[in-house]
Specification:
Methane Monooxygenase Hydroxylase, Chain G, domain 1; mainly alpha; about 160 residues; elongated; disordered C terminus
C-alpha cells in the first residue's frame, strides 16, 4: 500500500472517529435527560446504543493505531504533530482539524459520562436510603443526639420501626 493510500485511510479513520464520537455525545445527552426523567426503558435502550457505539469507537481507534504503524507514526498527539509538519499543507489542515475535533469530542463525552455517572450514583443512594427506611436499617450514622452521640438518622421514623 502506498503512503498516500495510508494517509487517505488515516483521514477516513479520523473522520469515522469524529462521527462516532459525535453520535456518542448525543446519546450521552439523551441519557442525562432519561436519567433526570427516570425513564427506565429509555435508559436501557441508550445503554445498549452506548455499548455498541463504544465498541465501534474502539474498533476505529485500533484501525487508526494500525494505520499509524503503517506510516511509522506513534499514535499519540506529539508524534502525529511531528509527522504532520512534513506533510503537504492540505493534509496538515485536514488532519489537524479532525484531530482537534476528536480531542474536543472525547473530552466532552468523558465529562458528560462522568455527570451521568454522578446522577446514577445519586439515584442509587436515594434508593438505598429509601429501602433502609422501609427495612428499618441504617447504613449511615450521621446525626447526633442532644448528648452529642451519633444516632441512626432513621431511628425516629415510624416506618423504620414497623
Amino acid at each position: 500500500m502506498s503512503q498516500q493510500e495510508s494517509i487517505n485511510q488515516l483521514i477516513n479513520s479520523l473522520t469515522e472517529l469524529d462521527s462516532y464520537l459525535t453520535e456518542l455525545s448525543k446519546i450521552l445527552l439523551q441519557e442525562q435527560t432519561a436519567l433526570s426523567d427516570k425513564q427506565i426503558d429509555d435508559i436501557e435502550k441508550l445503554a445498549e446504543l452506548k455499548t455498541g457505539l463504544t465498541q465501534q469507537i474502539e474498533s476505529a481507534e485500533c484501525n487508526r493505531v494500525n494505520i499509524c504503524a503503517d506510516l511509522n507514526i506513534l499514535p499519540d498527539k506529539k508524534s502525529l504533530g511531528k509527522w504532520l509538519k512534513k506533510q503537504p499543507k492540505i493534509i496538515q489542515q485536514q488532519i489537524a482539524k479532525t484531530w482537534k475535533r476528536i480531542t474536543y469530542l472525547g473530552q466532552k463525552c468523558t465529562t458528560q459520562n462522568q455527570i451521568n455517572g454522578i446522577m446514577v450514583a445519586h439515584q442509587q443512594r436515594f434508593t438505598q436510603d429509601a429501602l433502609s427506611i422501609l427495612r428499618g436499617t441504617v447504613s449511615d450514622q450521621d446525626e447526633y443526639s442532644k448528648k452529642g452521640m451519633q444516632e441512626n438518622k432513621f431511628s425516629h421514623n415510624i416506618i423504620g420501626k414497623v
